[in-house]
Every structure is written in C-alpha cells, then in structure tokens.
C-alpha cells in the first residue's frame, strides 16, 4: 500500500454560478482499520477561501497549521484577505520547498475571486497546480470521483443544485472505495453565506 | 464486500455463504474463486459419499475432506478461510478450515479481515444455550461491527440458521441501514428558529 493510501481520503470541489462547493469524506483509518469517523479534512482560510487536503493525515494537519500561520501574517502585513489565486500560489511554493522530502498531501483549493467568480484548483504533493473551471478531485477515491463528477456536473449551477450534485458524486464514489467514506462533509459558499452540512453515508 | 485489486470495491452483494447441500453451509473468506470452487468440489464429494454409503456424510467427515484437499495444495497460493456448518446424527457441527490445511472444531468462529472486530462482539455476547433469535441478533451485530471498523468488510449481513431439517436463511440486511438502526441520528434541535412576524 502506498503512503498516500495509509489513512484514506476523498476530496472534491465544484464551481457553480457565483458560488462553489467543497466536500470531503470523514474517515480516518490506519490501513484497513477505521479509527475515527469525524476527521476534518476541509478547513477555512478565510470567508472566501477553503482548502481541502487529502493524503497522509498528519501532513494534512501540519500543512493546514502552516498555511493558516502564513495567511495570518499576510493579513497583518497587507491588511486584507488573500485572493484565492494568490493562496494557491502560496501553497504551491510551500509544497515545492519540500521537493526532496515532500508533504504527502494533495490539496484542493476552492475560493471566490473578484466579482464573486468561483476559483478551484488542485495540486500534487510537490505543488504542480492544476486549474479547472468545472471540478477537481483528490484522494484514494479520485478515480471514482472523476467518473461521478464528469457524469453529474453541469456548468453554472446554483448553490442548492450544486450541493445536491457534489453530495451525490461524493457518496457514490466513496462507496466504491474501502479507504474513504463513513459520512461526508460539504461546504457550499456563496458571496453572502457559508453553509456547512454533514452527509449521512454508508458506514461500512 | 468483494474486492478486486485490493482496494476497489467490485460488488456489495456477493454471496459469501455457499450452500453445499440442503443441510450444510460453507462461508467464504480469502480468495473468492478458491472458496467457490472448493466448496462446490466438496459438495460433489459429499454426494458421492451418500451414493457410495447410502447415508449422509457427517460434518466432521465433510470438513476433513476439505481440509485434506487444501493440505495437498499447501504452499501453492490458495487462499481459503472457511467455516463448515451443518447438522448430522451427532447434532450440530461447526468446523473452521483454512488453506494451510488447518481444521478446528468449535462453538463459535469468526474469519476474515474483519474477524477481530467480530470476535469482540461475539465473545462478549455468546452463551451456549442462547435462543435462535438471540443468536441471530448477536451474529448480525458482530458482522455489523466488523463492517464498521474494517475497510475491507461491508455490504450485506446475511444470517442463516442450521437445524435438524437443514438450513434456512433468516435475514439479509444492508449494513448501511443497520448502522442507523443501531445508532439512529437524533434529529437536530434548532437553537433558534426564525418565525414570520405577525402582520400588523
């Protein structure tokens, strides 16, 4: 088993009309054994930028702490929040610093840019940015997620429809993967509100 | 749950309890093809025994046939972890048989990657003189707990009963639903509810 599959994870983000949704599974495992069913994989950087990290759980937590630290410094110096594109470049740079001993995570970054346009991107563990207009996926369930998102996605969905689509794509994909699932965590972000929802999934 | 290539779920509805004949059952753990083939082979041998001896084979005899066959293939990479359950003249019989040729008689066993979790629930709830309903509920709970903790277990929890007149299937519950049956989600209590202001 590869080290990226040690804990098991599934993260997906989708862009909609002036909104975005980011979702993850909730399982923390040690190879086949499930340890926890409430693991936080998606974190808020500020009201308009979220990051979901898949891969080794310890690096997920450490990398998140480092990124929050860097963003707080940025806020103190610039007296404003980071734009999602800037944040993505920051993550990419931080990951490449560890090029020969990387953080074993694959981040998914989702945010609302200027004019409330959604911004989503993913990266590999050494910082190769991959921008997309529709959806990005990461984790042990990524192959199933690609299939489910490709089938279910439509451009310019409103917040409620986007929530339904991303939830169905996530739940059906993690049901095909032993190492992720055990519930779902979805954030749907519009210019005016952030809606956080927990999904009831198969607990096997 | 049926896995191919280790981590991809091929199916949630594989029959893991194999019906060898109307009064004997075998369980499947390890390699699916191996278990299916060798259980069918065992069924053939049991029928040949009946024809040659004009009486049914005992559970002890059937499990020994399987164990000896697997022993002769030892080291060749077969993967079989099975329990043979049946009823014969001496009463109920339960044997554990594996691909190394091991064969054990016992009152209760659990086999497979999820077996440690199932043993925990099984051992704490087991009594020799349980009723059929209590035993079937204990079995269902043990399987459910194994599917919750083990990534490689899941799908459907099937429960069969083996009695003097043969086996019957008692239940086949989807463990996804069993979870919310055993641990229902309490309805969320809203801290504040917005209500329409009375029109003035």
Automatic annotation (TrEMBL), chain A:
Gene Ontology BP terms: proteasome-mediated ubiquitin-dependent protein catabolic process
GO cellular component: cytosol; nucleus; proteasome core complex, beta-subunit complex
Database matches in InterPro entries: Ntn_hydrolases_N, Proteasome_beta_3, Proteasome_bsu_CS, Proteasome_sua/b, Proteasome_suB-type
Pfam families: Proteasome
Gene3D superfamilies listed in its UniProt record: Glutamine Phosphoribosylpyrophosphate, subunit 1, domain 1
The keyword Cytoplasm is assigned to this record: yes
Record key words, sorted: Cytoplasm, Nucleus, Proteasome
Subcellular location(s) of the protein: Cytoplasm; Nucleus
CDD domains: proteasome_beta_type_3
Biological role stated in the UniProt entry: Non-catalytic component of the proteasome, a multicatalytic proteinase complex which is characterized by its ability to cleave peptides with Arg, Phe, Tyr, Leu, and Glu adjacent to the leaving group at neutral or slightly basic pH. The proteasome has an ATP-dependent proteolytic activity.
The family this protein is said to belong to: Belongs to the peptidase T1B family.
Subunit structure, as described in the record: Component of the proteasome complex.
Protein name: Proteasome subunit beta
Protein species of origin: Brassica campestris (Field mustard)
Automatic annotation (TrEMBL), chain B:
InterPro entries (UniProt xref): Ntn_hydrolases_N, Pept_T1A_subB, Proteasome_sua/b, Proteasome_suB-type
Localisation per UniProt entry: Nucleus
This protein's UniProt keywords: Cytoplasm, Hydrolase, Nucleus, Protease, Proteasome, Threonine protease, Zymogen
EC number(s) reported in the record: 3.4.25.1
Catalytic activity: Cleavage of peptide bonds with very broad specificity
Any GO MF annotation of the entry: threonine-type endopeptidase activity
Coiled-coil residue windows: none
Keyword Metal-binding: no
UniProt keyword annotation of Cell membrane present: no
GO BP annotations listed: proteolysis involved in protein catabolic process
Pfam families xref list: Proteasome (PF00227)
Subunit architecture: Component of the 20S core complex of the 26S proteasome. The 26S proteasome is composed of a core protease (CP), known as the 20S proteasome, capped at one or both ends by the 19S regulatory particle (RP/PA700). The 20S proteasome core is composed of 28 subunits that are arranged in four stacked rings, resulting in a barrel-shaped structure. The two end rings are each formed by seven alpha subunits, and the two central rings are each formed by seven beta subunits. The catalytic chamber with the active sites is on the inside of the barrel.
Function: The proteasome is a multicatalytic proteinase complex which is characterized by its ability to cleave peptides with Arg, Phe, Tyr, Leu, and Glu adjacent to the leaving group at neutral or slightly basic pH. The proteasome has an ATP-dependent proteolytic activity.
Protein name according to UniProt: proteasome endopeptidase complex
